[in-house]
């Protein structure tokens, strides 16, 4: 397998479009590499843990860590080789609905859906068919059947009717199907897939492509795009229509820069690295309307699929309930601490710490507004969140507290995981701590951590496992 030389030849031949045949041709070799890496890791993990001479033990630990990086990377490459050529129109033109999520107002998949673009792909060449914001889709109410479980959990929020509530679930394919159906209802045109991204993705792309200039003369750079889109833009344009036009121009300019860069062979490697990093963090997600492609996408992080697998799991998901843009200042911490084993299962304590670092004065009214109109008194900068903890499949909640006082959480189920939700008022410059006590199926594996992509990344800690008796 010599994919590097094939890519180099393709790059000299005219940009990203020339890479597609080379990439598709390497799919079988990449799938073999992914299979070998997975088998090797399984064999290494089956080796006895001790006793080892110090040097051998150190080498064993390093090998396990190296394979833990290689296995997902080779699997990603294998899926990309199968999916990307047809997705980018190698065989026939495609159309995609691309949504920019504003992480200053948290939603399950990241941020509230805002500006969008409809792009076309034809043999690797990308083009724009439409650009718009939420005004262009307001009033839609497509019929989308996402199952009884989804309806039970989110139906009262009417996610198909209200664009702002369309992605409350962390399972990206749910949001993608709603967005796809919404655009079809509004335009009469079907899309072949949906892409979700946030301004952090635009920042990393601009670091590769270089700065661009907006219509009002503002220079858009990798260092200021997130701040412009989610903080200072609100102060600069207090008028709603002007602000939306400005944010749409940010999205248009950054996306145009990407389209141009795809035709520049010198920038392809940097773009691939940037996109791969964003996808690994869940900031760039994709759903395909074609079943065979979606099955492959669903196996990788960039599919945004919320897992259903058994085993230790910890997921913290917040949805903004205040209606402002204060999640730009939100800090989250999750500590997952396994306790002793009992006849019912292993005891686990999950501690969630939320900090609202918003200043108590000086923020625009649009940022601090309380669309929820609470019956209690609030100050500018105070926030409100629906905080959901997703536990391991088969887990049970035995108790919960907020700031040391007993708390009653709403319970539900999503994709086999028990979900426990609490409505939390989070004052400006304040901290709240939610603790959940659970009984979970016994396992000594580390939990899978679900990291909702917001402005400030989640800080997570996993405690040591007390040994279970025979």
Provide a brief overview of the structure.
The chain has 470 residues and is an alpha+beta fold. It contains 12 helices and 18 strands.
SSE blueprint:
Elements: H1 3-12, H2 19-25, H3 27-45, H4 54-87, E1 94-107, E2 110-122, E3 125-132, H5 148-154, H6 172-187, E4 193-197, H7 199-209, E5 212-213, E6 219-220, H8 225-236, H9 240-261, H10 268-280, E7 284-288, H11 291-297, E8 313-320, E9 330-341, E10 346-356, H12 365-368, E11 383-390, E12 396-402, E13 405-406, E14 410-414, E15 417-426, E16 431-440, E17 448-451, E18 459-462
Parallel strand pairs: 1-4, 8-17, 9-18
Antiparallel strand pairs: 1-2, 2-3, 4-7, 5-6, 8-11, 9-10, 10-16, 11-15, 12-13, 12-16, 14-15
Helix pairs in contact: 1-2, 2-4, 3-4, 7-8, 7-9, 7-10, 8-9
Q: Which regions are unreliable across 5 or more consecutive residues at pLDDT < 50?
A: 1-13
Strand order of the largest sheet: 13-12-16-10-9-18
Which overall shape is indicated by the principal axes computed on the Cα atoms?
globular
**How far from one another are the termini?**
48 Å
> Compute the gyration radius: what is it?
23 Å
